[in-house]
Write a structure and sequence with these properties.
This protein is α+β, with helices and mostly antiparallel strands. Helix 10 runs antiparallel to helix 11, helix 10 packs across helix 12 and helix 11 packs antiparallel against helix 12. The structure holds 5-S-methyl-5-thio-alpha-D-ribofuranose (SR1) and magnesium ion. The site of magnesium ion has 4 residues, from loops.
């Protein structure tokens, strides 16, 4: 049967209780009588239903795909098959990066439903960043996750046949890719019904974006790279809302946008969302300067995420390369080893340039496109919000149009630091 068709039905509380009561392992995990289970719908994402179910002895998280985009409604249908790709991606990520994704407990293809371990007391990292919380485990965990999932699904680790099979396994997730192609790489740069921004303050900036041909070329090159560069299995939506964390643990959730694409898209997503957290921080101050230490931590984190990711990825390449790319037989002896090492450095520089560009694209879409983020949205005073957003956009435009001019991550964080107190000219 095709993914998620046939007997699909949306499970609300009562139907979900009956469904779970019929699964002996989950019933035992929850404990007590099904009638006593507390079931709460907690989904605050853009697409799905998410339930937390708690029983006498344990809890679980249940995610069910809706046949439409939750944020917009039934007028925007979306294939249920995304639940299949999410489950497949989570399974692969669990094998490659153990302990960094939620444990999978059950999957029903027809219902487009997945049951996972309940992550408690983890919270969505974006919410923590808005509150000014620092995450000491984050750098090590997210860089391990990215280095291992990207390296081991790439041509550096897989044979050509394995790689092509893997690409094919995710190729059907194109409806989710199309969301990204439209909402990130196209709509913010043209008049589109679903666009929105902090009006009237950013009206001028929004209009400038629509006229900026250098930016249109740069975003189009990134779009082509996104569409036509199946380098590795991407999470596909790796923002801070797809990460649940505590001080001592990190879990990456929600890979329903998974497909084979350019590695810089995932790395750029992490960096962009930290940078947006940085620029939003000033808007959350209750007293001038009270969040400076947090902001210093955020920029240090940005530096460390790239540097540690790069170090771990290169280490894997040096020690675990078993793929068909860069055949060992072409790089023999000391001369070969030295030339290959230089090539590895050049590869990482190209990946860094991609990362810078994709990070910029990820930023601009959250300020002018359909789906915004709470980092900025929770800044109540729209003028203050617009100031934070305009700073982020100024950095993002430079990063997109002149990505290669940012040679190191310190170039990015240095530029961000300089914009911290920049006063933009606002419209209105
Ligand atoms: C219509 S979906 C909008 C956004 O939500 C998801 O989290 C992705 O970021 C997508 O672009
Ligand atoms: Mg999501």
């Amino acid at each position: 049967m095709a993914h998620g068709q046939g007997d699909y039905r949306i499970l609300q509380e009562a139907a979900l209780r009956d469904y779970l009561a019929g699964l002996p392992d989950l019933k035992a995990l929850l404990g007590g009588e099904p009638a006593s289970w507390a079931i709460t719908e907690v989904g605050d994402g853009n697409l799905n239903l998410v339930f937390i179910v708690k029983g006498a002895s344990g809890g679980i998280a249940v995610k069910q795909a809706l046949p439409y985009v939750r944020l917009v409604g039934e007028s925007w249908p979306l294939p249920l098959s995304r639940a299949h790709y999410e489950y497949l991606a989570l399974s692969r990520q669990a094998a490659l990066a153990p302990g960094l994704v939620p444990a999978l407990l059950h999957h029903n293809e027809t219902l487009a439903l997945t049951v996972m371990e309940l992550l408690e007391p983890h919270i969505i990292m974006r919410k923590g960043l808005v509150a000014g919380t620092r995450y000491p485990r984050f750098v090590d965990d997210i860089t391990t996750f990215m280095a291992r999932t990207l390296f081991f699904t790439s041509d550096l680790a897989l044979t050509a046949a394995e790689k092509k099979e893997a690409i094919a396994a995710f190729a059907g997730n194109h409806a989710l890719c199309k969301i990204t192609e439209d909402l990130i790489f196209t709509d913010p740069y043209r008049t589109a019904e679903q666009n929105r921004w902090t009006a009237p303050y950013l009206d001028g900036l929004a209009a400038a974006l629509r006229e900026d041909m250098e930016l249109h070329v740069a975003i189009s090159r990134l779009k082509l790279k996104f569409m036509a560069s199946p380098e590795a299995l991407l999470h596909g939506d790796l923002h801070t809302g797809s990460i649940m964390a505590t001080a001592s643990e990190t879990r990456v959730i929600d890979p329903e946008f998974a497909f084979y694409g350019p590695m810089g898209f995932d790395v750029g997503a992490v960096l962009a969302n930290l940078l947006m957290g940085y620029f939003a921080s000033a808007g959350h101050e209750r007293a001038p300067g009270e969040r400076r230490e947090f902001e210093t931590w955020v920029l240090e984190t940005v530096d460390q995420v790239w540097n540690e990711f790069s170090r771990k990825f290169l280490d894997l390449w040096r020690s675990e390369a078993s793929g068909d790319a860069y055949p060992v037989s072409l790089f023999t002896g000391q001369k070969g080893a030295m030339r290959l090492e230089a090539e590895r450095q050049a590869y990482m520089q190209r990946l860094f340039t991609d990362t810078v560009g994709f990070a910029a694209a990820k930023t601009i879409r959250r300020i002018f496109g359909l789906a915004h983020n709470i980092d900025f949205e929770l800044i109540e005073d729209p003028r203050k919000r617009a100031i934070s957003e305009a700073r982020a956009v100024r950095l993002a435009r430079g990063m997109m149009v002149e990505a290669a001019a940012f040679r190191t991550i310190a170039d990015v964080t240095g530029a961000a630091r300089k914009l911290r107190d920049w006063q933009p000219e606002l419209s209105g």
